[in-house]
Amino acid sequence: xxxxIRKVIVTGGAGFIGSALVRNLAADGGYDILNIDSLxxxxxxxxxxxxxxxxxxxxxxxxxxxxxxxxxxxxxFQPDLVTHLxxxxxxxxxxxxxxxxVQTNLVGTSSLLQASLAYWQSxxxxxxxxxxxxxxxxxxxxxxxESEGYFTETxxxxxxxxxxxxxxxxxxxxxxxxxxxxxxxxxxNCSNNYGPRQFPEKLIxxxxxxxxxxxxxxxxxxxxxxxxxxxxxxxxxxxxxxxxRGKPGESYMVGGQSxxxxxxxxxxxxxxxxxxxxxxxxxxYTSQIDFVTDRPGHDFRxxxxxxxxxxxxxxxxxESFESGMRKTVQWYLDNRAWWEPLLSDTFDGSRLGxxxx
Length: 357
Prior knowledge:
It is a single chain. The protein has a domain at 6-194 and 231-257 and 300-318: Rossmann fold. By secondary structure, it is α/β, with parallel strands linked by helices. The chain contains twelve helices and twelve strands. Helix 9 crosses helix 11 (321-334). The strands form three sheets. A seven-stranded parallel sheet has the order 3-2-1-4-5-6-10, sandwiched between helices. Strands 7-9-11 form a three-stranded mixed sheet. The chain has a two-stranded parallel ribbon with strand order 8-12. The chain has helices at 16-28, 67-77, 91-96, 98-122, 125-130, 162-181, 203-213, 232-245, 262-276, 307-313, 321-334, 336-345; strands at residues 6-11, 31-36, 57-60, 81-84, 132-138, 185-190, 192-194, 217-220, 226-231, 251-254, 259-261, 289-292.
């Protein structure tokens, strides 16, 4: 029996989560994949070298804000599914330069929705019924939690940073296109992702690299802020569960069920490196921890209740925080050729997000 091949557009497919999804879908064999990525600083084609010659994968370097170009691509490729991951994502960068976040996350999503709607309306029969627009978002749109409680699919939106505000706006746009025009959408809001191939401005790879360089490990405030950590490959299986089996119009929370303070995250990285690559002086990498001025408007805690996706789609994370962190640290030790060029070309490891106003 011939296997049905679904045609999927992945926006932001050269980014951290996007490339993990693209690699997973390419390995499956049941998808033709078109990666639309403008290849900003965070898009890295080195994350896709394993599949770049696959006859089921192709790349278009385009900006999702170009509605006419998106319409042209949709007409040419004829997708069955859009998974929308393209976004500016780093909170500290959004503090320094919010305009780029408004442009990509809001204007870009609106442009993509317009192109998707026009294309979907041109379809007929099963192809129209089966089409999905899956918008991937963040738990940060819900604001900040105290020491107890969890975000759910019905939590009121309360974004606090330019980044989370831009993502909240994009969530609302996607739902508006569903309620107003009937576009069959899905929304997922995930907790903090980590794993191999994450751009080194983010906490975990930055701490690994600074440990190895013998540099201070900047921890904001007292390191008491709490995040729920989700291993990126677990996130990918959640995304697939949603766009393969989820109900159109629904949203799903995705979390790793691994809450840790920022300080504890850094301590775990240090402990793993103490074991894998001990310092020459015999000391612990924890001695490099340096408490610095907190981020402006730093949300205290994020935590998600992912019971709905577990009950309805039978998804649960497979990696514990400890197993996922060890895999991640080992990957950065083994793949200097991936991250060292980024330090010299696009990011020097210096602090971002101190500008206020």
